[in-house]
Amino acid sequence: MSTDASPPLIECRNLTRSYTLGTQRKLSRSKDRPTVTALDTISVSIDRGEVVGLSGPSGSGKSTLLHLIAGLDTPTSGTVTFDGTDLSTLSGRNRTKHRLENVGIVFQHFHLLDALSARGNVALPLVELGIKKRDRRARAEEILEAVGLGDRITHKPAQLSGGEQQRVAIARALVTNPRLVIADEPTGELDTETGAQVLDRFTSVAEDTAIVLATHDPETLAIADRVISLRDGKLVVDETDSEGTKVTANPHTESVSAQSQSQSVE
């Protein structure tokens, strides 16, 4: 985790995200339609180089918070600032540009293009950035090698296992050297050994990159400097010490360590 005293990279203030339900013709005015509040007045900040775990049961608001932090969605009220810029003030085109230049996203369901090879999928963000073909191929191959897919570079998604597809998605998120990486269940389709390798890759970029990992997996949460817990759209835990400094102690680290010791004894 970074110890720099500079302002946070991400600042969320009083975030609320509500959705209107129903399309019945009787409910002609939006104010008459029922709403669901996915996030309710959430305030959190994320530093440069910090690895933050996001935990909570299904439906707690984890994915909604990820989407807001990444600039994929805008809040009903409240603000998300990235390095001092309020994302809600950007046009749709400029938010897309912001994500391309600054954010790497690992979606839970991969979103790979079937017609492209692993290398082609990983290189896509570099195409949008105008990187020359030779350079983007070399960078895509380098990052695929780093996630253990050096022998699958020319394979298309249909030729890859679920875990291999997930690693391609992770490589695509990292290929631009983003300032922020968000990941929704990044090790959900991976075996234990491969999952550990992928987590090592995440932490290796964390010196300069903020990482937010939403997961149910205690081993994934164990790599985090800090764990933010949500329930029913509300903030449950974001521990700080008495002076308001973020506490890096992570209870999941102790539980994983204890589990490992138990296994070694057996």
- CATH H-level name... which superfamily? P-loop containing nucleotide triphosphate hydrolases
Largest sheet, described in full?
6 strands, mixed
CATH architecture: 3-Layer(aba) Sandwich
Strand content: 15-25%
Task: Provide a count of the helices.
Answer: 8
The CATH C-level name is Alpha Beta
Distance between the termini: 33 Å
What is the domain tally?
1
CATH third-level topology: Rossmann fold
Give the strand order of the largest sheet, numbering strands 1, 2, ... along the chain.
6-7-8-3-9-10
Structural class: alpha/beta
Order of helices and strands: EEEHEEHEHHHEHEHEEH
Describe the 3D structure.
34% of the residues lie in helices and 23% in strands. It has a single domain, classed as P-loop containing nucleotide triphosphate hydrolases (Rossmann fold), CATH 3.40.50. The longest helix is centred in the last third of the chain and has 15 residues. With 266 residues, it is of the alpha/beta class. The strands form two sheets. The chain has a six-stranded mixed sheet. A four-stranded antiparallel sheet has the order 2-1-4-5.
Lay out the secondary structure:
Elements: E1 10-20, E2 35-46, E3 51-55, H1 62-70, E4 77-82, E5 85-86, H2 92-102, E6 103-106, H3 118-128, H4 133-146, H5 162-174, E7 180-184, H6 192-204, E8 210-214, H7 218-221, E9 226-231, E10 234-237, H8 251-265
Parallel strand pairs: 3-8, 3-9, 6-7, 7-8
Antiparallel strand pairs: 1-2, 1-4, 4-5, 9-10
Helix pairs in contact: 3-4, 3-5, 4-5
